[in-house]
Amino acid sequence: KGKHHRMFCDPAYVASPEYQAFWQRLGRGEFDAGRYKRFGYRGKAVWIQATYNPIFDMNNKPFKVVKFATNISPQIALEEEVTKIAINFATKSKEISSQAKAVASGTQSLGATAEEMSASVEELSASIDSIAQNAKSADSIAKKTQSEADQGSQAIAKSIEAMDLINKSSEEISEIVKVISEIASQTNLLAFNAAIEAARAGDHGLGFSVVADEVRKLAENSSKATKEISKLIHESVKRASQGSEISKEAANSFKKIVEGVAKTTQSITEISVAAQEQQTAAKDVAQAIQQVADATEKSAIASEAIAQATTELASGADQLKLAVQKFAN
After folding, report:
1. Fold of the domain built from segment(s) 1-71
2. 190, exposed or middle or buried, with CB in 10 Å at 0-12, 13-18, 19+?
3. HSE of 265 in the Cβ direction (CA atoms, 13 Å)?
4. Whole-angstrom Cα distance, residue 262 to residue 256?
5. What are 174-194's pLDDT values in tens digits?
6. Numbered ranges of CATH 3.30.450.20 in the chain
7. 3-state helix, strand, coil in the chain (%, to 5)
8. CATH (residue range 104-319)
9. pTM reported for the whole predicted model
């Protein structure tokens, strides 16, 4: 049986149990239908949609088989191409879905990193704000200190000027006292001479002698007083000179202090300006990082949507492949 049929079949299929079962069903008079792969001229594969109908004799035994077949090779080729495309589409969709999920995971990690960076920059910005505020306060204090130092320097300069005036006045007083001392000496000498002349005059010069003696005593007292005054003025001049020297030393020290305060004020002002610039830069960086965080969040959402869409596409491709297989069967 089937000798002519075998020549159109693959030798491996002819030797298979499946082929034997095919003829056994027909031998039992069972109807068979389906798609079959056969080989035509020069071994070219041909797919047919065929039915095999056993014909029974008068004894109700099958004695021949009637075959109706249609060439469906183009349809099979199309189905294979569609299946191949569906499999490839499903594979690519799964790859895209996997990559999209990886991108979404990466962007989520990047978003978390951006949030951490944003938090760090906010802390840095807060620190810079504090530094800027402290620098501003220090700048104000330094300027106030410089102003006070300038006032102190001016006060010392006036003190030195007053000391110089005291020295000058003391010298002038000393000259006046010296003149008074000389006058007292001359008065004492004249009184002494007058007393001598009064003694020569005898009783007539007695009254004049008393007056001369009183004048001499006054001259001695004046001389003594002028010496005391001269001594006090000398001490005053000496102390004024010492005070003047101390004031000059203090003025030099104050000058150095003022210069140091001025440099410190300038440095603090520069620090304050730099801190304000850092403050502005930190705010710009924080804003940029926030924009990155927003962008990565949107990217993550988009990647998740792509992953979801490609997953659905892959599922649709699998369903298409199953539908083609069902249609083929």
Report:
1. Beta-Lactamase (3.30.450)
2. middle
3. 16
4. 10
5. 787 787 778 878 887 777 787
6. 1-71
7. 85, 10, 5
8. 1.10.287.950
9. 0.40
